[in-house]
Amino acid sequence: MSNISHVFYSTSNTPYQHWQCDLLEYSFNKVQQDGKLWCLCSENEHDKNFTKKRTSKYSEIVKCPDWMKVDGKLWGIANKLESMKYWLDNNPSLSGTILFLDPDMCFVKPINEKVPKGKIIGQRWNDADMANHPMFKKYCPENLKNKLNNEVVFMYPFLINVVDLKKIVNRFVEISYEIHRNEGKWEADMYGIVIAALEMGLEIETKEIGCCNNWKNQRNNDYAVVHYPGRMLNCKNENIWFKQDFTKDTLTKPWKLKVHPNETTNKIEYQLIQTITELVRIQILERNTQMLYWNNVDLRDSLQNYHAQDKYISFQPWPGGFNNIRMSLEIAAVFAFLFNRKLVLPDKYHMYLLKNKSNMGDFFDKNSFGLHCISLTDFCKLKNIPNNWKEVEKISHVYDKVFDNGYICVPEIPKEDPIFSQLIKNRIVNELCDNDHEIIHFPKNLLGSFYLNIYSKRMKEASKYVAKHIHYKEHMFAEAYGIIDELGDREYYAIHIRRNDHQYKNLFISAEKIYQHIRDIVPEKSKLYIATDCKDKSFFNVLNEKYQTSFYSDYKGSSNKYLDYNLIGMIEQLICTRAKIFIGNDLSTFSSYIYRLRGYMRDIENKEYYLNTKKCLKNIKKISIKPTWIQTWMSTWGREHPEVWDFSNFNNETIFISIAAYRDPELEKTIADCFEMAEYPERLVIGVCLQDTLEKIENFKYKDHPQIRLNTMEYTKAKGVCYARWIIQTQLTGNEKYYLQIDSHSRFSKHWDSTLIEQIHQCPTNKPILSTYPNGYNINDDSKGYLNTKTIANIGYDKWLGRHLRTSGKGVVKSDKPIPASWTAAGFLFTYMEWKNEVEFPKRILFNGEEDVLFIKSFTNGWDIYCPPTSTIYHCYNDCRKQSKVKYRPLVWEDVQIKNNMDDLLEIIDGKGDIGTFRNLEDLRVKYGVCYKKRLIEDWAKKGIVNDGSGNYSLKKFVKDKFLDSELEPKTFKINTSGLDITAKYKVWIFAIENEYGDEILRDDIYGKDYFTGKKNTYTISSSSILKKLPYNYILMPRLEDGTELPRRCLKINWIKEEIKCPRSFKLDTSEIDFNLKYEFWIFALEDENNKEILRADIYDQQFLTGKTNLYTITDKNVLKKKPYKYILCPKLSNSSETTRYEKYIEWGDQPPIKKLTFELNTSNIDFEEEYKSWIFAIENEHNEEILRHDLVNNKYFTREKKHFTIDDPKVLRKNPYQYVLWPLKKNGQFGDKKIYRIK
């Protein structure tokens, strides 16, 4: 039995602790620590800018009040103390041993200490002579000081029985508060717990459970837990990582880790950075790939029919290699799943070809098994028998009839099943229908793919269970990704070549033959990863000559140096899964599992079964008969088949359809067409919120239809379409798999249901949404001519309408698969039912703003939007709005006086709304090019382009990938003026820029005399939007004052390459620094224009700290290439406190000082009698492009006390400010006149 029942920690849910909690919980799961993990989470009421709610897939979160404010000051430890009492008070049934941790701790290996009642086992406090610390001397009672010595002074982590924690908790809290109030000690609880334990008479034992990274003498030993309060230094004694500094790099995922484990100088810091590296890689995998396939929404509810009874399945794994053992585990787990039994897992033992002893938990995430599992040791204790398999067999029903080419039928052999009759040809068939035995034991006889060994009517359900719950541990995927990233995800090829320990000698072929077999599908010079057990690398010389070959041993620098050797084979399997094409070894369970894993990953396109012993063809003939293994008989372990990874097989394909209807005569026709045009109408469930007259409601044709769920409302009580859809979402949905939202005036293409399901399975992400504005139909089109329109438009952004976006179609989709899209259209949205659980409808919004909220909430909850390649839904645009003059139905805002309440959207924009935590609004800006806070739209976003980042969808027809960033550096070229007479009198040079296709993208005629007289011949393009259109040629046609036009010149642009001056110096502005103070050092960093840190170089030089110099020189050319733009300076005093943080623009010594631009605002259009919320204010260049958004909220502007505006940002000044936009927003929410003025 587990020695530890509970593991708990507390957090105040600050940005500083949020990431620490993520790391702690990840490491808890990684090492498979015993015990239930509890997170005692106090609500953060003191940082209004941090709104993330704590969520977890590893812990149970106990939401606690916030006790941080103590005597008017913030003391985070109060939350730890009070939440512990809160947890104990609200969970009276708690029992067993508790492991108590702090958030800034990280597991390296599990803890399994048994603690009897009356005892504490704690981490020895290794700082020098802690027993004589002043806090212990002052607050420890005199009668206990003889017991206080360095052997009993402990700290976190510690283990204690629940009974003893309840016994000491009140005194522990009381002493901690007393020490904090009297002494101001932040760490008062660390003294309080020791004193309370002594006072209550508990026996204290200290051990080396963990290690703090500032304990220099212990850092290279083995510990279970790493505690990281101190700074990390490299071998040069330079600061490389500190938890407080790291916080700013964790505000968005994936985190930005700027240190490699190899830069550390000791074992525990290496292990800590390695664990953080793993978690960052997992975040990348979650965001950018489908490698963590078990998160797929198709696998939901995989355990809904499993209810463990007090019966058991036990098994001895097959006595072969690891992948044979994996097969044994899968088969045994499926039996336990189908029979609702508990699974007995083997203890550690010597697995064939692996080092030392191992068990299943060393390779598989046992916490994810989903079954009730028990170890062999605990099972034998439970049954009071000696711990060995022979004794287990004595009390079990031993099932020894299974063979590697046999079938076990559960629960019985089916009668008259034609498919089963074909499956059992040449196979031994047994049935396992006797479920009465308490224990069923399999003695080393389980080998094969579970779905080829077991026949059950529930095999789809079992396949879904295996895909979801039996997978390698996450850190193995992270380890593999380190090498995958170097190779380039899906940019390389992989092959498995087995040379040793193979009983089939006919599979040993030469490297030359292997090359001949694979040459048609693996182009020469390609990157080829070779997974092999061959020690003689000369065998691969032929392949080395043809390809860029690499082996696992080539990537030692990317690998964890403390990695368990036994994991290398599994990691190589995972590396092979991400190849463009994988070629396996025949009759290899190592290769066959790679095929299955690639099948599970939705973003792997080529899932063909290639073997290195056969000619690999580009176009493989598909097997039309299902299941596919009928025609390709072999032993049940020899290969995998696509039925097991085709997620569409796993679930009932039911579709829920949401229809909000307001007095719409088209509703009944919509429902009729929906059923009529579906391929399988029986799988449809329609939820209708019907808002109409009482007579119409009573006579509704589908009122009693078994597939219609109805909510009715008299139309005078209607609150708008969003409220109606909210009712459907919260009251009418069930356990359907898919969710389709349409309007009540819609039509459908033939077999629309199957088409949408097929299309959503083509989306390469786990959480896809299909959405766009549907094509139209006319209510009088009885011939259904609208069905001739198969193509569909992708959506892009037009402009801002107040605080929400206006969007429209931006061109026909030219693809046979869904493409990344940038909008959720409320009139057609198809996704999985899980979406409605995560994205609540904005019920307060009447109409405008609905799609914005759905868009933001969907994205931040991890959903990806796609535009389908063909039209399935058609929408009637005949009403009294802009689309048509024909009005056929009433509109809610005409009947009912309702104002459009935008609070659901405005709260999100202001950071107060309830959105997801998977992504944030900055991520939305990067991917979709829109910023709601600043009301910005990137030019590329207006074309419907998505910054997808995966490489699956080319954006080059619009912009080149490198131009996707919102800002591009200005570029300069020379105008070729050879042959022009500089003494001639010119009126103008007609001047234009073209792209490579000859399209004019800029007209900017030149009137400057400096050009006419030859003093100037360079031209600079500073507009990002022009640069993104890829300037290629320039046109020059001089015109004289008498009107004569000289010959037109069309010349190619040759950009002037910028030379990097090195070294460069600038002066630090230290005018506000008090040099009478003594500084330990100055925190110092350089950032680029996008606020990205490009250099961290804290200043310890006394010349700077004492004010003797302020000249800072950069000598690293690589830093200068990144274009330093500003510097951050934060002096730190000798008492470790920090002073003011300064952020200043760099003024280079080799450039003239930065000039500020100040101008007076024209407020002639402002009514100063009004009260204003803000003035929307923006600076534009001469091409009407916004280069600065800076809304004015200072009341001094509103009262005329302030009339001027100053631009001092060099980035803005370089873009040539030309005019400004002024648009007053009144307190009542109404806008005044929008005006544009030239800057004077």
From TrEMBL:
CDD domains in alphabetical order: O-FucT_like
Chaperone is among the record's keywords: no
Domain Hydroxyproline O-arabinosyltransferase-like: 6-278
Record GO terms (molecular function): transferase activity
Keywords: Carbohydrate metabolism, Transferase
Protein's name according to its UniProt entry: Hydroxyproline O-arabinosyltransferase-like domain-containing protein
Organism: viral metagenome
